[in-house]
Specification:
Layout: E1 4-7, H1 11-24, E2 27-33, H2 40-44, E3 47-52, H3 63-73, E4 77-79, H4 89-97, E5 101-102, H5 107-114, H6 116-125, H7 141-151, E6 155-163, E7 166-171, H8 177-192, E8 197-201, E9 207-216, E10 221-233, E11 236-242, H9 249-266, E12 269-279, E13 282-289, H10 296-303, H11 307-315, E14 332-339, E15 351-352, E16 355-357, E17 364-368, E18 375-376, E19 383-391, H12 394-407, E20 409-411, H13 417-424, H14 427-430, H15 438-454
Parallel strand pairs: 1-2, 1-4, 2-3, 4-5
Antiparallel strand pairs: 6-7, 6-8, 9-10, 9-12, 10-11, 11-14, 12-13, 14-19, 15-18, 16-20, 17-19
Helix pairs in contact: 4-5, 7-8, 12-13
């Protein structure tokens, strides 16, 4: 087992990993930028190392500085956390080449699953269902238009190296295809340094369902159920829940076993998430995230399995300590992502927190690194807390998350707590009747009503 782990991340996820290390008797080292010198993870870790100024490229994306910090502190392994370098194949390779263990999959699997076109080819051979689309990269708009006519409009043009909605355009007709193709490619080139795109059939009203898998790299893999991540704004998740109100036991068993079987056949190691679109009773593979997910706590709540602990154990060469039949899904869980932003305009709201009170009680968990007097920096993601609740049923969970949101106090900055409260009051959400477009449609209707009243 590792004696010391360096955590190459910040905020609540860095603190989450520090806590797991503490419970496993492993020393932790947190690297940080100058903007995060007073961060809770820095305070809680056994050691900390400043690796650069606030901008991410000079700190959390600075691979030589991170590797130097690992060498100087005598770390055995590096945990990349979420975001930043967590799915960067070059970082993983350099970690391996410098004699450290990368707590995650191998560089081979990051490379294979990080390229969406290659990932689709891989899972197609392993039996996962795919959305009709291009067999790989579409090199020209003429080639794409010909293929789009075969697939049938509308089609979705997506960046191979994309994420977060960047490099993604919907072409609804042949007349607008070329402009959409060029915009997607140019946007991808600007955002990711890679303008390659691929295409797939655009599904009009799907749900976003993802399957959590855990594998040990020795041919053993399990799934830990599904998460419904359909409540999104601009392709960013807002509320997640598990299990999904849209699936029955037979459906979740089928897609879960397919995902686990795929991970086992790949020889995958660590935690991973297979993401699917689900429409009219059918699943379509979207992509695989080869890292821990922001929403991993809701899976932990219904399974009782510590994903970070298991991630560390398999990275150290351990075999999975349980089989699929050992995993029991208990109750229902929700996660609300609390961001430092205005709940209506969504303008980021960095600044000093003047008052903070976390909700508590049975079945309530808050993953956060904020505290009274903490200054939310303007440099990074706006996520400041994750409110997680667990209950016996979805109905009880809805009541619990409402109560917990009412208890949560964060003053000095704007947060989107009011948005969560508004969503919870909507009959369609309470009934579980929503798709990935539901929240944006709701917000658009509210804006239209405001404009009507104002005029």
């Amino acid at each position: 087992m590792f004696k010391k782990i360096l955590i190459a991340n910040r905020g609540e996820i860095a603190l989450r990993i520090v806590r797991a290390c503490r419970e496993m008797g492993i020393e932790s080292v947190v690297v940080h930028s100058t903007a995060d010198e007073n961060g809770m993870a820095v305070r809680m870790a056994d050691e900390s190392v400043c690796i650069g100024p606030a901008p991410s490229r000079q700190s959390y994306l600075n691979i030589p500085a991170i590797l130097t910090a690992a060498a100087v502190t005598g770390a055995d392994a590096i945990h990349p956390g979420i975001g930043f370098l967590s799915e960067n194949v070059e970082f993983c390779r350099m970690v391996e080449e410098h004699g450290f263990t990368f707590i995650g999959p191998t560089s081979e699997h990051i490379a294979k699953m990080g390229d969406k076109a290659v990932a689709k080819d891989t899972v197609r051979e392993l039996g996962l269902p795919l959305i009709p689309g291009s067999p790989g990269i579409v090199k020209t708009s003429d080639e794409g238009l010909s293929l789009a006519k075969e697939i049938g409009f509308p089609v979705l043009i997506k960046a191979v190296a994309g994420g977060g909605g960047k490099g993604m355009k919907v072409a609804r007709s042949a007349d607008e295809f070329k402009s959409c193709f060029d915009m997607a490619s140019n946007e991808a080139k600007a955002a990711f340094g890679n303008g390659d795109v691929y295409m797939e059939k655009y599904l009009g009203n799907p749900r976003h369902i993802e399957i959590q898998v855990l594998a040990d790299g020795q041919g053993n893999a399990v799934h830990l159920g599904e998460r419904d991540c359909s409540i999104q704004r601009r392709h960013q998740k807002v509320i997640e829940e598990c299990q999904s109100p849209a699936l029955n036991d037979a459906q979740r068993k089928q897609i879960g076993e397919l995902a686990a079987d795929c991970a086992a056949k790949m020889g995958y190691r660590g935690v991973g998430t297979m993401e699917f679109l689900y429409e009219d009773g059918k699943f379509y593979f979207l992509e695989m995230n080869t890292r821990l997910q922001v929403e991993h706590p809701i899976t932990e709540m219904i399974t009782g399995i510590d994903l970070v602990r298991e991630q560390i154990l398999v990275a150290a060469g351990g075999k999975l300590p349980f089989k699929q039949e050992d995993i029991v899904f208990d109750g229902h869980a929700f996660e609300c992502r609390i961001n430092a932003e205005h709940p209506e305009t969504f303008i980021p709201s960095p600044g000093k927190i003047t008052r903070y009170h976390a909700p508590g009680g049975l079945g309530v968990r808050v993953d956060s690194a904020i505290y009274d007097g903490y200054a939310v920096p303007p440099t990074y993601d706006s996520l400041v807390a994750k409110l997680i609740v667990h209950a016996k049923t979805r109905e009880e969970g809805l009541m619990r998350v409402e109560r917990a949101l009412d208890e949560c106090v964060i003053e000095g900055i704007n947060t989107n707590i009011a948005l969560h409260q508004r969503i919870l009051q909507e009959p369609e959400f309470r009934e579980g009747n929503f798709t990935i477009h539901w929240l944006e449609n709701l917000l658009e209707k509210q804006e239209e009503e405001k404009r009507r009243v104002a005029s």
